[in-house]
Known about the structure:
The structure is a single chain. By secondary structure, this protein is an alpha+beta fold. It has 3 domains: 3-46, no CATH class; 112-173 and 330-504, Rossmann fold, CATH 3.40.50; 175-327, Jelly Rolls, CATH 2.60.120. The chain has helices spanning 3-23, 42-46, 57-62, 128-135, 137-140, 160-171, 350-360, 382-398, 426-439, 447-451, 457-461, 477-502, and strands spanning 29-32, 35-37, 143-150, 177-179, 191-195, 200-202, 223-225, 238-246, 259-265, 271-277, 280-287, 294-299, 306-313, 318-325, 329-336, 362-368, 403-407, 413-416, 419-422, 443-445. A 5-stranded parallel beta sheet has the order 15-3-16-17-20, sandwiched between helices. It has a 5-stranded antiparallel beta sheet with strand order 5-8-13-10-11, with no helix packed on it. Strands 4-14-9-12 form a 4-stranded antiparallel beta sheet, with no helix packed on it. A hairpin with a 2-residue loop joins β10 and β11 (280-287).
Amino acid sequence: MKPYKIFLTFFSILVLIALLAYFFPKGGISVFPGVEINFPSLRDMMDREEVQYKDISRIVRQNKPIDTIAPVIRDSSEVSATRGDTVPPQPETSTTPKEKAPAQEPAYKDKERENALQYPEEGATVLEPFFRSLHQLNQNNRLIRILHYGDSQIEGDRISSYLRNQLQAQFGGAGIGLFPVVLPHNTNISMDHRVSKEWRRFTPRHLDEANFNHRRFGVLMSFSRFSPYYSYYQDEVYEASISINDSPINFERSSQFTQCRIFFSHNEKPFIVKMNYRGKTTDAEMVPPSDTLTEINWRVPASQDELQITFQGNHSPDIYGMALDGKTGIALDNIPLRGSRGTDFTENDTAFLKSMLKTLNVKLIILHFGVNLVPTLRESYDFYARAFYRQLKMLQSIDPNLSIIVMGVTDMSRKVGGDYQSYPNIEKIRDAQKEAAFRADCAFWDTYQAMGGKNSMPSWVFAEPPLARKDFTHFTYKGSVVIAKLFYKALMRDYRSYRQAHGPAEASGSTP
């Protein structure tokens, strides 16, 4: 090709790029929700400043992405003997001076510290019911429960697994908690879970389907069935199974559960349920019809590493979950609601939800949502603050002693020009969540700020090892450990302050 033709070709390409840069919409072109096409403007190309990603080296150095056990917080009045599922006392040899609370530190002084839990004005007492339950665990010899709700950011037991293990190390307990028969997207790092093909899971998104006409979704916001739509004259017998095996990467306490519980309701015909472990049937029950929340509870040896439960019947009950727990201490449930903004709870039957919360002895709810709202760019998120507030008030109306912590939205990046930058609405969404939490007298933890704030997500993605995935939205497992450590420290600092203000745990008998 002749030189002038080469010149004209390149010149034409440059003119085309310039025209695209000039006329292309500044905000990009949305292809479908969450995906848009952008093109740099002429100014971006001529006068482009390199975006500075947040330095997170100190965060990672102080919260290494490895699984560790925190020192046990103990009252001097606590006995040293191991009882039931409670772990033996452990010395505080690894505690740094910063982690030890000063002897005369006023209650909740730690809220002024970096990454601290935040409270409504003069509202630090909003977590006192939960702290009181923790404080009395050694005397009451009970099992208390924490529900950890979130979107896909916590899917697969990320964040939850580390929090659970740390709390069980401190306060006793075992097992992985409550989970649905059919796992969302079949992911959970804490167990090897398999179900037969007959099972089907239902959520509020299935409300328009003809095979059920109620809103009883329980605490897991779902239920499962093993038979098709029920007809009273149906005589075919259906059979389905659930198999649970030890995961090679779980925490040791996860496989040391001593009880297996199944929660169900509204079966109009009897069904048979069998428990098997080590290849042998250890129990079989004929369960009569029921129209209320019902529980089956089996004791299992802590040494087991494999369970199988089989159901047989003409009509499946609505099964609301299966729990693998200890008898005392802490249970923490990982409840991911993929695609949710945290505004689905009012879809639930509140009377049924109340009965399940009471049966499970739930003392704390953690809500971690926000990333599904980020691609929806708005000038104001007042609409979200109002909707999220309604969820919090509904949960509080069920049990006034229920403590709630809102974990704010995480940082999330998109590519602008040649750099990854935080979505411009992250802080607006975070502020809307905080406003709703404070208005409802709930605690708030700023996950976005704990990560490092604006433009911190790329630093998590490019860290070694990677702490976030290349979608610039979700944590890797190691990244989830870092976030869990930051949150756990904040929670335990305030519990330590509560403990100092209230002295030794009260005698048994008064459970909030």
